[in-house]
Specification:
By secondary structure, this protein is of the alpha+beta class. The protein has one domain (31-169): CAP (Pathogenesis-related Protein p14a). It is built from 3 helices and 10 strands; from the N terminus they run H-E-H-E-E-E-E-E-H-E-E-E-E. The protein has helices at 2-17, 46-53, 108-114, and strands spanning 31-32, 60-63, 66-73, 76-83, 86-94, 97-98, 119-122, 130-135, 143-148, 154-160. An 8-stranded antiparallel beta sheet has the order 2-3-4-5-10-9-8-7, with no helix packed on it. A hairpin with a 7-residue loop joins strand 7 (119-122) and strand 8. It starts with a helix and ends in an 11-residue tail after the last strand.
């Protein structure tokens, strides 16, 4: 036991000298509200979203002027939807919290406690999945979308204009 004590103490002492990691200004903000994600809101161009998030986006077209650009930054993962070159919505499947503390993995009950006015719809493509919407009361009427699994857990969070009503933001 004594033979292990010295190496363990040395290792712990060395770890204490490593400076704590500072949050990077180049990470996508992890709070999603009805007002946006950091400074990112619907209507921005691809370049503007890249500048705000500090990442490169590579949109791929889906037709009808709609394209998706996957992204990953720190623990945040998702995709952005652009319509005719302008941001429509942001979709997250990891690493974000809604402004009222609802994150991926939260229960439907927690979501209902956090937001008073919810619109709940059955997902047209996935049996047992519900799409839960919160609408901004003042203009512009952006929305949050929470996809809730058959097990009543939030699996994805989206923010944006009317494109959040579409599957993955594109028709």
């Amino acid at each position: 036991m004594r033979r292990l004590a010295l190496p363990v103490c040395v290792a712990l002492g060395a770890l204490a000298l490593i400076p704590a990691a500072e949050p990077s200004s180049e990470l996508i903000p992890s709070i999603v509200t009805l007002d946006g994600v950091g400074e990112v809101r619907p209507g921005l161009t691809v370049t503007q979203v890249e500048q705000h998030f500090g990442i490169d986006l590579h949109p791929a077209g889906f037709g009808a002027g709609c394209s998706r650009a996957p992204f990953r930054s720190g623990i945040v993962r998702g995709h952005a939807t652009f319509v005719r070159g302008r941001l429509g919505s942001l979709w997250f499947d990891r690493g974000v919290l809604a402004g009222r503390g609802v994150g991926i993995g939260a229960t439907l009950t927690r979501l209902q406690r956090a937001y008073r006015r919810l619109e709940i719809r059955r997902d047209p493509d996935l049996p047992g999945v519900r799409n839960v919407y919160v609408r901004r009361t003042r203009a512009p009427h952006w929305r949050l979308r929470f996809d809730v699994s058959p097990e009543n857990r939030v699996t994805r969070i989206a923010f944006g204009d009317l494109t959040v009503l579409l599957p993955d933001g594109c028709p």
